[in-house]
Structure formats: C-alpha cells, structure tokens
Amino acid sequence: xxxxxxxxxxxxxxxxxxxxxxxxxxxxxxxxxxxxxxxxxxxxxxxxxxxxxxxxxxxxxxxxxxxxxxxxxxxxxxxxxxxxxxxxxxxxxxxxxxxxxxxxxxxxxxxxxxxxxxxxxxxxxxxxxxxxxxxxxxxxxxxxxxxxxxxxxxxxxxxxxxxxxxxxxxxxxxxxxxxxxxxxxxxxxxxxxxxxxxxxxxxxxxxxxxxxxxxxxxxxxxxxxxxxxxxxxxxxxxxxxxxxxxxxxxxxxxxxxxxxxxxxxxxxxxxxxxxxxxxxxxxxxxxxxxxxxxxxxxxxxxxxxxxxxxxxxxxxxxxxxxxxxxxxxxxxxxxxxxxxxxxxxx
Length: 346
Description:
Layout: E1 6-11, H1 19-32, E2 36-40, E3 42-45, E4 48-51, E5 61-65, H2 74-82, E6 87-91, H3 105-121, E7 124-127, H4 130-136, E8 143-145, E9 166-171, H5 177-180, H6 184-190, E10 198-203, E11 216-218, H7 224-230, E12 238-241, H8 247-250, H9 255-262, E13 266-270, H10 273-276, E14 286-288, H11 292-304, H12 306-323, H13 326-329, H14 331-342
Parallel strand pairs: 1-2, 1-5, 5-6, 6-7, 7-8, 9-10, 9-12, 10-11, 12-13, 13-14
Antiparallel strand pairs: 3-4
Helix pairs in contact: 6-11, 9-12
C-alpha cells in the first residue's frame, strides 16, 4: 500500500548547501525518502530569497528554521500561523546568547525577539542539544531534542596516513576565531620545539598572520558537501575543537566530534557540555579545560603516542557508527515531525 508522505512547507534563510539545513532538514528528508515531501517556501534568488505562501495549503506541517523569523518576514509569519497548520521552529544555536564579538551579533540582535515570539507560538520547537532545550523551554511549552547526526552520504569512513609527522587540524568556521585565539601562543610555541613531531593545518578558522610557521591554511568552505569531501583529504591524525566557555557555546552540539571520528582523527575537545555528552575522556577523545598549556600538553601527548592516537580514533569511529549515523537515526526527525503534525495547533 502506498505511503502517504508527510508534506512539509520549509522556511529557512540559510544557504541550502550550508551545514545546518543539510544536517537538520535536507539530509534527514533524503534518508526518509518517500515518507517526507519538502516544499520550499523561501527560495534563493540572487543575494536574497523569493518567499511564497503557496506551499501552505498543501502542507501537513510548516517548518521554520533558525533566523527566518524577523521584522521583514512578519507578514509571512502571520500567514503561516493563520493557516491553522501545525508549526515547528527548529534551531541548533542559542541566538538569545550570541556573544557581542560574534560576526552575526548585530543582525541576530535585531531578529531575536521575532525568534522568541515564533518559538512561543509554534506547535513544537526542535533543538539539537539538551542545553538548548532548557533555553527554549523558557519560551515554548513543547520542546524536543532532535540531535544532529552525521550523514553517511557525505562522510565516508577514512583512515589518515601513517606518517612520522602527525597532521594536527582545526576545521571550523571563521566565527570560531575567539575560541582559538587564547590557545594560539601555547600551540604555536610547539612549532619551535625540536622534539615536536607535528604540523598544523587550519581549515576555515585561520590563526593570526605570522603564527604557526609552516602551517597549512585553507579558506572556509560554506558548501557543507564540499567541506565534507575536503576534510578527509587533509590527512589529519589529530583534530582540535576548542570552545570558549560562553552561554552561546554551551548550547552547541558535538558535530565536530562526529566529523573527526569519521575521518579517523583522534580529537582534543573543550571540556564543555557539547563534548562532555559524547566524549569518554581518554577513550573516544581527550577533554581539555581552558588553560592553553593543557591544550599544548594534549597535542604533545597524541603526537608522541601513535598507539594512543589509533586507539582513540578507532573507539570514536565505533561510537559514531553505533549511535551517531543519520542512516540509523533519521527516524528521530520523522517522529518529531509527526508528533507536531498530529498535535494541537497553538
């Protein structure tokens, strides 16, 4: 008997090729196949978008993501809520706590009231972490954690080359520069040690000019599929994931751990909630506090011990395959969307 797909009208202003819509909308829908039909309500058009309400009538559910709500979209939002259809608001960031030094601070401050209002009116709010669920529980009656899972179609298992000099990489967006900056002096000093058997690679988030002599520096790739194809080819044996201890960062997810596990890198992670929930210290990664010297020591530990690197990488890969692959977990998205579609509208 044919399956009637759940028809979802999707409104988001992120580039469809960017990480968040790929991870939380398009890849789950692709894996779910005929169970879901997506109807885009905001279509990229040059530097902006063409927004339509034509997709509301055939939709079973309306999905609004991240920073679509704002003063400029207020008429569309009113049409959405007036449709009587169930509405889901989805985010993987705490926009209510974005730091003042973040490049998007000014633009997000202008639309945060609209985000809070949309979350409060939605039938369901879906978020990526328990910390983020606590945040949005202040504004919404129904909040569900639907974690980020790694898409198998984009991340094939790889093993880094076995070389005497270990490649140590930081792969992140440029907005993570404040997370790297406090660690730069201690990490860069390693390059001047005669016993240091490592080389640094920076992909997307680049250190200060003149630091890290001989390091590879690669620009950010906004296309998530291109990023996922490039990262394994860098041959990283060790992955770095620093985070400053801010309210904003505490709500983030462990996608970086998933990515490093997929490419066979042993990761060093900030000892904060995003990674504390998935990393077993010393087994599936190293958890390190905020002191720069501790990060330098962790890098030295892994560069000196190839056996430890391999064990940590293998353990992380096994944990990833067990619980964090989208192919095995996509039903979490379908369950949340069905839950909202069958519930009462606000």
